[in-house]
Amino acid sequence: MQPTIKPAGDSALLVSFGEVIDEEVNARVHAIADAVERADFEWLVEAVPAYSTAYVFYDPIKASFSEVKAAIEPLLQVSPESFKGRLVEIPVVYGGQYGPDIGFVAKHNGLAVDDVIEIHSKPTYRVYFLGFLPGFAYLGGMDERIAVPRLEKPRLKVPAGSVGIAGKQTGIYPLESPGGWRLIGRTPLRLFNPGREPPTLLRPGDMVRFVPIDESEFLELYEAEWGGGR
Amino acid sequence: MIELLNVPSLLTVQDSGRRGYRKLGVPVSGFMDDYSARIANYLVGNPGNAPLLEFLLAGPTLRFNASCVFAVAGDVEVRLNGTPVEPWMSHWAKRGDILEVGALKSGLYGYIAFAGGIKCEPLLGSCSAYPKAGLGRPLKAGDILNLGYAVLTRKDGRYLPPGLRPDYSAKEKTVRVVLGPNLDHFTGEGIGTFLSEAYTVTPESDRMGYRLDGKAIEHSEKGAGIVTDAIPTGSVQVPANGKPIVMLRDAQTTGGYAKIAVVATADLPIVAQSRPGERLRFEAVSVDEARELLIRREKTLRAIKGFLDGKMRAYRIRTGEEELIAFTKVERRD
């Protein structure tokens, strides 16, 4: 399939495969965004992949839309295999104070709590892209057997690192924020750390696996990640 | 060093923003009105992107604990030790002097620049505050800011004449936009509504985006939702209620509402400086026209910098209805 190119204002250009959520399409999007960034054009600000689109942000003083378009067109044929994300393992303590809604998720789906943990920690999830909050990953690949509706009333404060489920999606809150997802656990890792370069644990195109840990492991890792630093 | 004595509204350190972190979900942030902010920096002899203070509606009161050259950009009353001094002009302050910046008479954001810039540890390449992610925080009374090193001689007394200042006082302003990229989510009538009606800025507006009220824009059968993708600064999203939202500096990096248009970069300050209750009209231009507007604006800013540096002279030319400002190089006689 051939993507279309459209202007998105005077400083960005939209490469689109249409409005689809599909692993193969997303792999092509990552390959294109990566190829554009590696080509090191002097007008390039950055390429931002999402599900089925890559926005190419450029400096309009340095190049016009048609110049940018002409420069990236040859890169659209790049093979999806040219870009490989990393596999990132994310330790999670499930249930208890860390995952207050895990009982609801189990009950709603007619499962035992241990089944929820097993089903959630089994797949390898794909980071389709990051957005919404710094370091927030849109993950694909959750097993629908643990799908649940959102909370009717969002919590005012969800701690950073909370792992939640909303509909057929799962995700991790990178920052303390309000939120309506059902919380099943928490990772001690910092998803977003402004003092680090790059500041996010996950990057677009990575693969993610959740590894169940117990509370003492959580506390130990938590101290190492959050203690002392900012 | 300066000490903030009174902070009546949102006051943050801003520079030209973060570059290259959208793909990790980090908003660009930076000056809401980069035109005024850059002139404020030029007035004190800084590079245009030096970190300065951005205030919303009303400025702070502060004390200088060391000599410094400063300038205020905005339609605002400024007092130094109780005596009125001109905005859009650089002044010398001594240790112990008190600067009071009042409420803006027009526009929404004002800037205070200091020679040498505000000293700060850049986070992800920028000093711009984005408190939501722990990148800086709003300033409060009692905060102390350090300034960068600057050669202070001959940086005061720089003055931008009224004809060269941006004017945000109109209650209805026209904003140029590039239509798209999700035009297929709107009916022809919807696009016509967007380009012919005036939209009022509502109080639910902040550095993230301005919600507008006015005649609802009709979506096509594809509806208001899109498969989530990136949000360029200035994107005009239209949720299901048909009322547009202009996404600005602190906007989240991705979103799921259809974008009917993106504001021309050169006109972003016009949006940012529009107060709740004021109206915006949108005019479609091509992507090349939008680029031309920006190139022209950059030329003007460069000429203004040259003028403030004493390297250019400005002339006002009246041709019938239109008033133009022309710059010429100052001849150097060595």
From TrEMBL, chain A:
SMART domains cross-referenced by the UniProt entry: AHS1
InterPro entries in the record: CT_C_D (IPR003833), Cyclophilin-like_dom_sf (IPR029000), PxpB (IPR010016)
Keyword Hydrolase part of the UniProt annotation: yes
KW Transferase (keyword) present: no
Keywords: ATP-binding, Hydrolase, Nucleotide-binding
Domain Carboxyltransferase: start-end pairs: 3-202
Organism this protein belongs to: Thermococcus radiotolerans
Annotated protein name in UniProt: Allophanate hydrolase
GO molecular function: ATP binding; hydrolase activity
UniProtKB/TrEMBL annotation, chain B:
InterPro entries xrefs: CT_A_B (IPR003778), Cyclophilin-like_dom_sf (IPR029000), PxpC (IPR052708)
Molecular function as annotated in GO: ATP binding; hydrolase activity; lyase activity
Database matches in PANTHER family: 5-OXOPROLINASE SUBUNIT C
Organism placement in taxonomy: Archaea, Methanobacteriati, Methanobacteriota, Thermococci, Thermococcales
UniProt keyword terms in alphabetical order: ATP-binding, Hydrolase, Lyase, Nucleotide-binding
Keyword match Transmembrane: no
Record's protein name: Urea amidolyase
Organism for this UniProt entry: Thermococcus radiotolerans
Chain ranges of the Carboxyltransferase domain: 23-300
Coiled-coil stretches noted in the UniProt entry, renumbered to this chain: none
Pfam families: CT_A_B
